[in-house]
Amino acid sequence: MDGRAGFDCDVLVIGGGIVGLSAAYAITRAAPGTRVVVLEKEAGPARHQTGHNSGVIHSGIYYRPGSLKARYAVRGSAEMVKFCAEYGIAHEVTGKLIVATRRDELPRLHALVQRGRENGIPVRELGPAQIMEYEPQVRGLAAIHVGTTGVCDFTAVAEQLAESVRAAGAEVRYGAEVTVVDRRAWGVAVRTGAGDGAGARDGTGARDGTGARDAGAVVRARALVNCAGLQCDRVARLTGDDPGMRIVPFRGEYFELARPGLVRGLVYPVPDPAFPFLGVHLTRSVDGGVHVGPNAVPALAREGYRWSDVRPGELAGTLGWPGSWRTARKHWRYGAGELHRSLSKRAFATAVRRLLPAVTDADLRPAPAGVRAQAVLRDGTLADDFLIRRGARTVHVLNAPSPAATAALPIGREVAARVLEVLAER
Hints:
Helices cover 32% and strands 26% of the residues. The protein is built from 11 helices and 20 strands. It has helices spanning 18-30, 68-87, 106-118, 128-134, 154-167, 198-201, 232-239, 312-319, 322-343, 345-353, 408-424, and strands at residues 9-14, 36-40, 56-57, 91-92, 96-100, 123-126, 142-146, 150-152, 171-174, 178-184, 187-192, 218-226, 245-257, 266-269, 281-284, 290-293, 297-298, 364-377, 387-391, 394-399. The longest helix has 22 residues, at 322-343. The chain is globular, with a radius of gyration of 21 Å. The model is unreliable at 195-213 (pLDDT under 50).
């Protein structure tokens, strides 16, 4: 008798962003014939973190040697370029400058050089005149050039992953928001809401791209993978697992440069090592435009892309988490500066002029914002590395903000390996 009888699939993946689809992709490649279903509450893939970022393929220079972020970003950047080339997805290896504009940043810049070398990333140290050879309008005391950084269309990557997993026999359901998870010794049963996803609310929710809305169903699986991004801690609690963290959403606000010719490629400040954010930077995208940003301010909803997006229940959940208050007490000065730049275009422009003196307030045109799903631990620590945990019949991806899009293919293989171990235990 087939031990899979009575199950709708072997592995149920919750989340149709680039990480969830990479996990499904890796499972179908590592174990052909494994039945996979992906549930996504929106009307299509990549509607949140994947589709709301600067599109940078990160080199891995920032991350602690030996960490998952370092290993997977270095490996993933090369794999992402190869994937884009294979499927004709817009991309470019541009290189980038990380520029010190103050003397107190020079030690941190030199530390990045060492970190890059420890992570196996070639870097070139530059003086002021050499900076201008790469970026004539950029000014700084010193910089490093990282040649392996690039840009791509991550939404197109997610769409291709969805197409590839369907071609391998997996099913991708859109407009399917998970509302209940019942975990038993034999596996898990998940109920989806009748049109609960945002795509269903606007009338475009679809199943497998056919235009048919998911009407609510029960899906039984031998194992569950949680790649729900901004909702991952909530999904973990639905399964009965204690994630030991909460997602605290931070909105990253962007501007578009009205004079894109001021920047040739990618220009970053020296990051503050106390924060997982990289500061306001300039990014030439695959369409030729230049994005400026992001800052990092608390969002008032999990999917709060504007100040007017407020969900009282979600906000109460953030404020009720002890780690949120501990983080606020520890980093209030940093947060105040980010808030000031959010409310004042002039302050934002002043921050940009540290790198690019020619920028005027009028050069900055508002662009769509993104929301970072930042895991905060109970003690107020901002989770710095990717966080992947296994429970009974479950694998949870609990912290996968940037550079997760860059690292999506290695992350997917790691998740696949862990869930296939779950299946092998039966």
